[in-house]
Amino acid sequence: MTRFRELRLQKGYTQEAFRKIYNERYNRNYTSAAISMIEHGKRMPELGALIDFADFYDVSLDYLLGRDMPGNQDRQIYRQLRDIMERLDSIRVDEGKSELPVVKEDIEMLGCLLQQSAVLAKRVELEDNAWYRF
């Protein structure tokens, strides 16, 4: 079963109901036969329609196309850790204005821990192994 069909079923739409709503919302002219072919992997919609499908179901294109599998979660974790580290670098230690005491050493320690976590996430991604093997 393709993600197109899986997502439609999760939303509780029949093919016909989905087709009507989708065509109306995105100004498309898909037939029931075309939707069926897409759901069975016999036809691939053009890029604009793919974007519309992803928008309709509120998922990424990778997920819609079946590329967002558990191995890609490692890549996402790595990116999220990098984002946190970048935000952490931008924190200004302004004692007295914070509800909790912010100590420069604590921020540096947190940065080191995040960096080590990012290194581990990258190794897991490259080695395609579970994190607990490292």
From TrEMBL:
Domain HTH cro/C1-type, first and last residues per copy: 33-64
SUPFAM superfamilies: lambda repressor-like DNA-binding domains
GO molecular function, one term: DNA binding
One Pfam entry name: HTH_3
SMART domains, alphabetized: HTH_XRE
Protein name as annotated: Helix-turn-helix transcriptional regulator
Source organism of this protein record: Anaerovibrio slackiae
